[in-house]
From TrEMBL:
<keyword id="KW-0328">Glycosyltransferase</keyword>
<keyword id="KW-1015">Disulfide bond</keyword>
<comment type="pathway">
    <text>Protein modification; protein glycosylation.</text>
</comment>
<keyword id="KW-0325">Glycoprotein</keyword>
<dbReference type="GO" id="GO:0000139">
    <property type="term" value="C:Golgi membrane"/>
</dbReference>
<keyword id="KW-0464">Manganese</keyword>
<keyword id="KW-0808">Transferase</keyword>
<keyword id="KW-0735">Signal-anchor</keyword>
<dbReference type="GO" id="GO:0004653">
    <property type="term" value="F:polypeptide N-acetylgalactosaminyltransferase activity"/>
</dbReference>
<keyword id="KW-0472">Membrane</keyword>
<dbReference type="Pfam" id="PF00652">
    <property type="entry name" value="Ricin_B_lectin"/>
</dbReference>
<dbReference type="GO" id="GO:0046872">
    <property type="term" value="F:metal ion binding"/>
</dbReference>
<protein>
    <recommendedName>
        <fullName>Polypeptide N-acetylgalactosaminyltransferase</fullName>
        <ecNumber>2.4.1.-</ecNumber>
    </recommendedName>
</protein>
<comment type="similarity">
    <text>Belongs to the glycosyltransferase 2 family. GalNAc-T subfamily.</text>
</comment>
<keyword id="KW-0333">Golgi apparatus</keyword>
<dbReference type="InterPro" id="IPR001173">
    <property type="entry name" value="Glyco_trans_2-like"/>
</dbReference>
<dbReference type="InterPro" id="IPR029044">
    <property type="entry name" value="Nucleotide-diphossugar_trans"/>
</dbReference>
């Protein structure tokens, strides 16, 4: 077994961890010289592993009784099988343990590559619910694989910076290379599903509060549903990071749209504008750009190519709306707070 940690400033991951792990001599702690992220850290652990089978588990898991033999049994029968336990739910608030709802469901994804679980049609279900079943894609964090087969597949792509896509890469490769992906109902592992991601992701996305230069007010969303207007409100101030569930925290990334909230699991509502003079509202994200494509210009204006207009504001009415672009208007100038400048630059590269 191997545990991998970046050299973080958190004291309990230093000497206290080393002392605690002396109780478990079979466990090795591998440390990276810099923060590498989940995928490259997993690869580090996999490269140091010596056993015939590699098992990946998130740190925030609790393995249930007799969880491992059912996984090893399937690999023993077919070394090209990647096998996943059923992932039960550990409550984020009180650590209560609940079984996964709907065992007869397999992994899939929507057009925005969000992981989904869909029911297996009744005619395809076996008579014995404890029998393993094929799944197109895995959930990602918990699986076992023959070590040599893992490297024959090429392992993970080392360019993956954050979690959320690695399960598709492995799943696609195993099916295209003659392997199998299976879920194993007799293997149960509990997993804490956090309400938010408690760390920053360097370089991959940009979190921002958008503040108006003229009024000093911030854009805010009161209701995270389609049709809700974007409003101006007093900017939220806190000693630490504003919670990603707050309506003033927005996400800019590779999709070239502006979304509300947590960058890993953003609510799928985006800034949308129909035409010149229309209000800026939320609408279900469609990923097709169009009304949801935005550019942040060097003069601090948020430009909407489809309507050839810019986001304007009325502090007295707290409204946010589209208007003819005016470089001199402070009500059309916006500052991004708590943002990654390099990501913001990539967001607008070649479009200013």
């Amino acid at each position: 077994m191997a545990l991998s940690f970046a050299n973080l400033s958190t004291e309990h991951l230093k000497v206290p961890l080393e002392e605690y792990m002396k109780r478990m001599p079979k466990v090795r702690i591998l440390r990276t010289k810099k923060r590498e992220g989940l995928i490259r850290t997993r690869l580090l652990g996999a490269s140091a592993a010596k056993g015939e089978v590699i098992t990946f588990l998130d740190s925030h898991c609790e393995a249930n009784v007799n969880w491992l033999p059912p996984l090893l049994d399937r690999i023993a029968q077919n070394r090209k099988s990647i096998v996943c336990p059923m992932i039960d739910v550990i409550d984020h608030d009180n650590f209560g343990y609940d079984t996964q709802a709907g065992d007869a469901m397999r992994g899939a994804f929507d057009w925005e590559m969000y992981y989904k679980r869909i029911p297996i049609p009744a005619e395809m279900q076996g008579e014995d619910p404890s029998q393993p079943f094929e799944s197109p894609v895995m959930a990602g964090g918990l699986f076992a694989v023959d070590r040599k087969w893992f490297w024959e597949l090429g392992g993970y792509d080392t360019g993956l910076e954050i979690w959320g896509g690695e399960q598709y890469e492995i799943s696609f490769k195993v099916w295209m290379c003659g392997g199998r992906m299976e879920d194993i109902p007799c293997s149960r592992v509990g997993h804490i599903y956090r309400k938010y991601v408690p760390y920053k992701v360097p370089g991959g996305i940009s979190l921002a509060k958008i503040q108006n230069v003229g009024s000093g007010l911030c854009m805010e969303i009161k209701h995270f549903v389609s049709g809700s207007p974007i409003r101006l409100e007093n900017c939220v101030k806190s000693r630490g990071e504003v919670g990603w569930s707050h309506g003033q925290v927005l996400t800019l990334g590779w999709r070239e749209d502006i979304r509300v909230g947590d960058p890993m699991h953003t609510r799928k509502v985006c800034f949308d504008a129909v035409s010149h003079n229309s209000p800026v509202t939320l609408y279900d994200c469609h990923g097709m750009k169009g009304n949801q494509l935005w550019r942040y210009r060097k003069d601090k204006r948020l430009y909407h190519p489809v309507s050839n207009s810019c986001i304007d504001s009325s502090p007295s009415e707290r409204r946010v709306f589209m208007n003819t672009c005016d470089p001199a208007s402070l009500s059309q100038q916006w500052l991004f707070e708590r943002t990654n400048a390099s990501v913001l630059e990539r967001f607008n590269q070649g479009h200013n």
